[in-house]
């Protein structure tokens, strides 16, 4: 069900305050906290004494204390203090995870192989001052693959997001899908159209536009979307965005269980780069409203699937990108499956 030996986003860097952070990643319960030197610790979220979640406890310097009996553990999972003269009896948290902090996010390595920094995705938009950012984090009660399907088929914008980014041309424009060595790609180009409300406002210029959407899926569960509009015939499709606006949407989906996931979303934009606090708050509110519309649909989809376990998804041409992504995930799962016994 889950692609192991990969990095998954566990949290944004600003989620760490005075309390531990609890996550379930690929079915594994994890507690995270930040040490005094800034390093983020991730370990199994369970005290080895009486099996109470450590995320209920307290951070004390570089250590974490269990709320139940006060057992104190360091960042390597070793018990430093326990009640009674028998001390810790060698108690140790069962698993400690490798973490990396990059692009304003905390990544956790899930798997049995040694953590491989080369497997972190390249997200240059998040490391550049040329792009402003809007970011939000959501928890969804659905299979993480439904989120990937949704992002690899933006035709749904017509009816799920009609007030902002939806328009009828999405239903009519042809799509082109392909699979490369490390990615599934879906492209849609819509020349000489009226921009939908959101893009018209962001462009801030009258006239018809060329609109593009290029969705790129990479393993294990990332979707990168190059989207925007430019005045007709000014080179937007070829990469000249001088007369347009671009939003590069970085979608990082972390599976929690078979029926739940976390969605870390960042829109890097080349417009409104000097937005004041009020304007930035409006960008965040718009993002939350858009994603909530998707969440309503995806969680309803999950409820239907749960109620009708024998029902099968049907694929149309518009689903070609999602189909390629599913094939990549299935092959990665098969490659990582244990050999049959005997």
From TrEMBL:
GO terms for biological process: methylation. It comes from the Bacteria. Keywords: 2Fe-2S, Iron, Iron-sulfur, Metal-binding, Methyltransferase, Monooxygenase, Oxidoreductase, Transferase. Residues 7-108 form the Rieske domain. One of its GO terms (molecular function) is 2 iron, 2 sulfur cluster binding. Its EC number is 1.14.13.82. Signal peptide: none annotated. This is Vanillate O-demethylase monooxygenase subunit. It comes from Sphingopyxis panaciterrulae.
